[in-house]
Design goal:
Blueprint (H helix, E strand, L loop, with lengths): L2 H10 L17 E7 L17 H9 L1 E3 L2 E2 L4 H10 L28 H7 L3 E7 L18 E5 L10 E2 L3 E2 L2 E2 L2 E2 L6 H15 L6 E6 L11 H5 L8 H26 L6 E7 L16 H7 L24 H4 L3 E4 L7 E3 L3 E2 L3 H9 L15 H6 L8 E5 L3 E6 L2 E6 L5 E6 L15 H17 L4 H10 L15 H7 L6 H17 L38 H12 L2 H4 L3 H4 L7
Parallel strand pairs: 1-10, 1-11, 2-13, 3-14, 4-5, 4-10
Antiparallel strand pairs: 2-12, 5-8, 6-7, 8-9, 11-12, 15-16, 16-17, 17-18
The protein binds calcium ion.
Length: 581
């Protein structure tokens, strides 16, 4: 090996530090990752909330609380970073999420955490929400390194029926679609406990528990909501609180099962959330038909979003801390002392850290952005990151270095914000003008990442849908309004049009990042029309999309009812007004 190759190997496999050798063959730790979805930063007991989370609080008390740990603004990129140890912009997942009408997924040439652990001798299992590709089986968890998968593929389903948009059941065990009664959170807890009980302990276990809670729709068993009826806030907050407590109950069951199986002492448990709590109605609704809401104990439309990110600015979708800083715990009492770590760490760090503990290898073709953060967690060492890329897209980005954070909105007229998070964790004071040299440094770093960015799969997916509607789509002189389009729209019956509907509102969102939908709630409730056609559906066929379905037109209705010019100030955004004649 030449010196250059050795240096390259050290660079690529730099995470294989001394701790690799602390755990020899046969003592590889079990790894359990529990990921909440859209969890408010302040919505756990140990963070001062009145929401009861005794089991998660116990993990926090006995584990390492990572207080400056970053997810991504939304589900798909955060989950992708967890699964790859690489920034989502390296493989085109940096923008928004995979919608039901999208055909793309986490590129199959990316090497996943379960793949690497499986090669290192682990049994690998996943329960819960995937959201890294559904339209082709090659994207499904069982084809991306998991021996076993039980859960759903797209971004959200009804917690009781597991239907998407009231049309398609998205719930399976190892490829077999199920019509199964029961509450999502309880069911994945049951499955996780069964997996642990049945586990052959001669092999190490990697278990990924991807909770849908407390993501919308806000639904929980009635008795669990009633338990909060005297708590602060309205019924939406009570429901949201119940969802988190129900998740906490499952966390407790999982810990107990590990203990009873005598596995706990040799298990690293990572608890986190993919992104911050939804504080804009754009991302938070319990939208369902009145009948379904009554039946499920769900909430009314138009609700004030119930999540709280405490003093952090912004929420889900935002590059500010409320959108991306997620409460995270590393629990392994025999190896990690209780502590609070304020060093900047990131979701991309989980894979290299876990692989180092497992004595597993990275891939030279896919060098990690993440670092082995074990010494930061176990020995209170500084973060191994020189900087942490919070995200970069063609129109915005954010980066953190030490206590500095730069948020750049590139969309004209543009905006540059600099915050000192040590003094101003709430990002209230933009001090970019006072520290031009810091801005220049962080901007140069962000630009370097931007140059390495792959085109966004989400952006690439839009023309396929938009193109079907022809030349009016990007006509800057168009004076048509979405309301007008709605009045004239035909009864859409194919998934291209479904995609068009979604993309129209999502594009609107892109250009309106911080505009809240104050009149009515909205959320992509479109039918899951892009699920593979070659499976037998237990309910209605996937293609029975009709504009008569209230759920399928909900988002469209929302956008339709808003005066477009009230929302959109940029000329380019006028082009979103589509004449659907
Ligand atoms: Ca999420």
């Amino acid at each position: 090996m030449t010196l250059a190759t050795l240096r390259f190997a050290l660079l690529v496999f730099g995470f294989i530090g001394p701790c690799t050798f602390a755990f020899g063959q046969g003592t590889k730790p079990n790894i359990v990752v529990i990921l909440a979805d859209d969890l408010g930063n302040a919505d756990l007991g140990y963070r001062g909330s009145d929401i009861k989370t005794p089991n998660i609080d116990q993990l926090a008390k006995e584990g390492v609380q990572a207080e400056s740990f970053y997810g991504m603004p939304v589900c798909t990129p955060s989950r992708a970073q967890l699964m790859t140890g690489r920034y989502a912009m390296r493989y085109g997942l940096q923008t928004l999420v995979i919608f039901p009408s999208h055909a793309y997924g986490l590129p199959t040439d990316e090497r996943t955490l379960p793949q690497a652990l499986k090669e290192a001798g682990y049994q690998t299992a996943m329960v819960g929400k995937w959201h890294l590709g559904h339209a082709d089986k090659k994207f499904w968890p069982q084809n991306r390194g998991f021996d076993h998968f039980y859960g759903n593929l797209v971004g959200e389903v009804d917690y009781f029926t597991k239907e998407r948009g009231g049309l398609v059941v998205d719930w399976q065990r190892d490829g077999k679609f199920l019509k199964e009664d029961g509450y999502f959170t309880t069911l994945i807890g049951n499955e996780a406990v069964s997996i642990i009980k049945a586990h052959d302990t001669s092999k190490p276990l990697f278990l990924y528990v991807a909770s849908l809670a407390p993501h919308a729709p806000y639904q929980a068993p009635k008795q669990d909501i009633d338990a909060y009826k005297n708590a602060a806030g309205d019924v939406h907050r009570h429901t949201y609180a119940a969802m988190i407590t129900d998740l906490d109950t499952q966390v407790g069951r999982i810990v107990t099962a590990l203990k009873q199986k005598n596995m706990l002492d040799n298990t690293l448990i990572v608890f986190s959330s993919d992104n911050g709590g939804a504080t804009s109605a754009l991302f938070a609704t319990g939208a369902r038909s009145p009948e379904e809401r009554a039946e499920s104990g769900g909430v009314e439309l138009g609700a004030k979003p119930p999540a709280s990110n405490g003093t952090l600015r912004g929420g889900k979708g935002s590059l500010h801390e409320g959108g991306v800083r997620v409460p995270t715990i590393f629990y392994w009492p025999t190896k990690l002392k209780p502590s609070i770590v304020n060093e900047p760490l990131d979701m991309v760090d989980v894979m290299p850290t876990v692989l180092a503990l497992a004595g597993a290898k990275g891939s030279p073709d896919h060098p990690f952005d993440g670092k082995d953060i074990w010494r930061t967690l176990a020995e209170n060492q500084p973060s191994p990151h020189e900087d942490v890329l919070i995200n970069v897209e063609s129109f915005r980005g954010a980066i953190r270095k030490d206590n500095w954070k730069l948020v750049k909105i590139a969309l004209l007229p543009g905006k540059t914000e600099l915050f000192d998070l040590a003094k101003d964790p709430g990002e209230k004071n933009n001090i970019a003008n006072q520290f031009p040299e810091v801005v220049n440094d962080l901007q140069a770093r962000l630009l370097t990442y931007a140059k390495e960015m792959k085109p966004s799969e989400w952006m690439k997916a839009q023309p396929a849908f938009l193109g079907a509607q022809g030349k009016t789509l990007f006509d800057p002189d168009s004076t048509s309004t979405i309301a007008g389009c709605r009045a004239r729209r035909p009864c859409f019956r194919n998934d291209r049009i479904t995609g068009l509907r979604e993309s129209r509102s999502a594009v609107a969102f892109l250009f309106l990042a911080d505009v809240s939908c104050h009149r009515r709630t909205c959320h992509p409730q479109n039918p899951t029309s892009a699920l593979p056609r070659d499976r037998t559906l237990p309910t209605r066929p996937a293609m029975s999309v009709s504009c008569q379905e209230p759920a399928s037109t909900h988002l469209f209705d929302h956008v339709a009812d808003l005066p477009f010019d009230d929302l959109i100030n940029y000329p380019i955004s006028r082009s979103i007004a589509v004449n659907s004649n």
